[in-house]
């Protein structure tokens, strides 16, 4: 089968143990990021199975309609970047494991890395030291402070568990079902959404991005946070109302942010508003980017290709496409 992998920035996948699952196939790997439809159509003209690394490239109808040989898209997690209706119409099967019961330790660990970096001003202190300065300010400790976790899913659960080691109080705000799970696990639920943002010293977002969660954190929510508070986003930038975070940080509530995600990625403009603020720690969407996490994710992704070739596709998002798939046989 002709398989193409997009956006493998560091040419990592061929070095993973699970890559052996693609032995015997013709595999093309692209290490750069391209979104231009014409360029992608040329790259993918012979592709039968397309492997995506999360949401790095948008796969929409204008591109799909130019890929007559494409039969399968295999990836992991949510799929707002894929035009599922167009895939179904064209008989392209989308297999995407939702791994709802699998913790993402890599993302949880990075969350805490960002918390510590922001609260102790680690990047700023490093930059000052390199510039010949010694101690540019006084940071804040975590013990005794309140961590607010917005969303109690597979990552939020792990982040909460790690908070015990830092001696923090944990407050959860989430859907009714998630709040019930949090209480069953021994955590306190915030008495209200307003109290959650008002009382927490650190708020960490751990929600999936759907239409219902887009912009779920409003400018008003941010404005109600303490001037000493930190907001952390390792989930999706779209969870915060457009432009609200930069405005809030300039206004001083909350006083700090740590972000791993941006509205448009990759961010290559050094003048991006968040990169220009001294009270922000930024990383380039590396929450899940670890060799261990890649091994886990791409084992599933490559297994989905194997299952398709065996005639029993798994984790199919658009089962209706199976009826139209014969058109591309």
Describe this structure in words.
- There is one protein chain.
- This protein has 329 residues and is α/β, with parallel strands linked by helices.
- It has twelve helices and twelve strands.
- The chain has helices at residues 37-43, 61-64, 84-90, 105-119, 122-130, 156-163, 176-184, 193-199, 219-223, 244-251, 291-309, 321-324, and strands at 2-5, 26-29, 49-51, 72-76, 93-97, 146-150, 169-173, 188-189, 202-205, 230-233, 256-259, 280-282.
- The chain has a seven-stranded parallel β-sheet, sandwiched between helices.
- Strand 4, helix 3 and strand 5 form a beta-alpha-beta unit.
- Helix 4 (105-119) crosses helix 6.
- It starts with a strand and ends in a 5-residue tail after the last helix.
What's the topology here?
Blueprint: E1 2-5, E2 26-29, H1 37-43, E3 49-51, H2 61-64, E4 72-76, H3 84-90, E5 93-97, H4 105-119, H5 122-130, E6 146-150, H6 156-163, E7 169-173, H7 176-184, E8 188-189, H8 193-199, E9 202-205, H9 219-223, E10 230-233, H10 244-251, E11 256-259, E12 280-282, H11 291-309, H12 321-324
Parallel strand pairs: 1-2, 1-3, 3-4, 4-5, 6-7, 6-9, 7-8, 9-10, 10-11, 11-12
Helix pairs in contact: 4-6
Give the tags.
329 residues, alpha/beta, seven-stranded parallel β-sheet, five-stranded parallel β-sheet, 12 strands, 31% helix, globular
